[in-house]
Amino acid sequence: MTQDELFKLLVAHCKEYGFIFPSSEIYDGLAAVYDYGQLGVELKNNIKQYWWNAMTRLNENIVGIDACIFMHPKTWVASGHVAAFNDPLIDNRDSKKRYRADVLIEDYLSKIEEKMAKEVEKGRRKFGDAFDEAKFRETNPNILREKAHYDDVHSRYVAAEQANDLAEYKQIILDCGIVCPISGTKNWTDVRQFNLMFSTQFGSVGDDSNTIYLRPETAQGIFVDYINVQKTGRMKIPFGIAQIGKAFRNEVVARQFIFRMREFEQMEMEFFVRPGTEMEWFRKWKENRMKWHVTLGMGEENYRFHDHEKLAHYANAATDIEFRFPFGFKELEGIHSRTDFDLGNHQKLSGKKLQYFDPETGESYVPYCVETSIGVDRMFLAVLSHSYREETLENGEKRTVLGIPAPLAPIKAAVLPLIKKDGLPEFAQKVMDELKYDFKCQYDEKDSIGKRYRRQDAIGTPFCVTVDHQSLEDNCVTVRDRDTMQQRRVPVAELRSMLDAEVNLNNLLRKL
Ligand code: ATP
Question: Residue 391: how many CB atoms within 10 A of its CB?
């Protein structure tokens, strides 16, 4: 099965089992807007809790806030979003499809990288143990040719980006022969800038002075509340403010499911530091955030850093944590050293002092800031796409499993009476009552036990707890493990602690 096919299956699976629905589907949906269903919301809440607790419980110097989506319009002037939150867009005249010019070029560059990686693999197979990758890359004529082309396109792309040269974007697309994936033609329009912020009218007077924006990032809520939190919380630098909330971007390209949405959720933390110490903190947060991801157990090899060569005007260091999605390595989280850009500009535009008096140095300054920013929905997609698998069992039967890390699973345990009579449902209900205060559980008595196991596998429930006739006598139940499908007898009295050891989110937090 190709990654593309797998991705389609995953999207269908998300709908079939109540993880994600297209928004307002009875009206044929709304592009790049999705709702979370009954299981999706549980998984999403668990992801948020893992992040929130990792930030605000494990770090005594990080506190949380919940700022509003609506903010004073000057916020977005100070942050630079009014002037520069643009994407370069290009249309294909034949398919009438719209693309981001930068993404078309980046995808083209990734394809060259893939070609080179394939060539390396060929070499590895040919030369076996004697294979020296570095030497191969330096001498193989195919790789050298691809590399020269890559470097040429890449340097033109970086220069165009830096100069904001839209004509050059188009020229690169034409020179590289990039075609529209739908029409297959090169019939491109010019590249234009497009501001990604949604605007709306505030109050009852509909003129320009009442135009406000739906926030395109949650971070600015943190910056404008910085002084309130610092003073009322008596926070000493270094300290952080964390926030989870909705953000809105009128994305040019609305494909790739929940990877790129027009309404999405971010988990952002701004860490305020003494100027001059930001690089040290940037390194620490890079390490810290990678550990948070890897601790979930989804394979270290599926993450990588992508350091930015071109820095935004306000940043002096930036990296992405990329994850191996079904459509390749893509940004999951950004970590940026944002200097005093945001606080400095808010100070200028508002005329309010946003300085910190440092008792250790006796100086006042606008703090520098290191930001970690991750999309909840992208994280959700990372977890689901990594977890989805189809297996053929020894008896030839097929099963679809979501191998979601147990602490994030929407349902932690299913309680299943073997049959619907003889007092088994009543016993199972008692087991439910015992577990429900600690874990989200599901009771199911319909269909054969095999079918019920399959249903739970398909939604990623780590444990099925089966009540049989023997249970009435020995007060034990059978616990089946989702991944190994092995079963063991467990006394009901030990069930809670057994599950706790496997599914409690705190087990993950302890490893950080
Ligand atoms: P991209 O280059 O993919 O558009 P970005 O660099 O604009 O992303 P940031 O502004 O750094 O993204 O936002 C921080 C995080 O918010 C991203 O790493 C991503 O996880 C998430 N995010 C950004 N835009 C979207 C979106 N449209 N839909 C879902 N998540 C998003």
Answer: 12
**Exposed (0-12), middle (13-18) or buried (19+): which is 420, by Cβ within 10 Å?**
exposed
> Beta strands 441-443 and 463-467: pairing type?
unpaired
CATH code, 106: 3.30.40.230
The DSSP bridge pattern shows strands 441-443 and 413-417 to be parallel
Q: Within 10 Å of residue 282's Cβ, how many Cβ atoms?
A: 25
pLDDT digits (tens, 9 = 90+) for 184-231: 999 999 999 988 999 999 887 666 678 899 999 999 999 999 999 999
Ligand 1: residues with CB < 6 A are 217, 249, 251, 260-261, 264, 266, 331-334, 373-375, 377-378
Using only C-alpha atoms, the chain has a radius of gyration, in whole angstroms, of 26
Residue span of the structural domain in which 51 resides: 1-78+197-288+334-392
Residues 361, 485 within the same domain? no
Nearest Cα to Cα of residue 406 among 509, 289, 296: 296
Report CA(333)–ligand 1 centroid distance (Å): 8
Residue with CA at minimum distance from ligand 1 atom 31: 375
Q: Pick the atom of ligand 1 nearest to 330's CA.
A: 3
Q: Please identify, by atom number, the ligand 1 atom nearest to the C-alpha of residue 333.
A: 18
One domain for residues 484 and 436: yes
User: Counting atoms of ligand 1 from 1, which one is nearest the CA of 373?
Assistant: 14
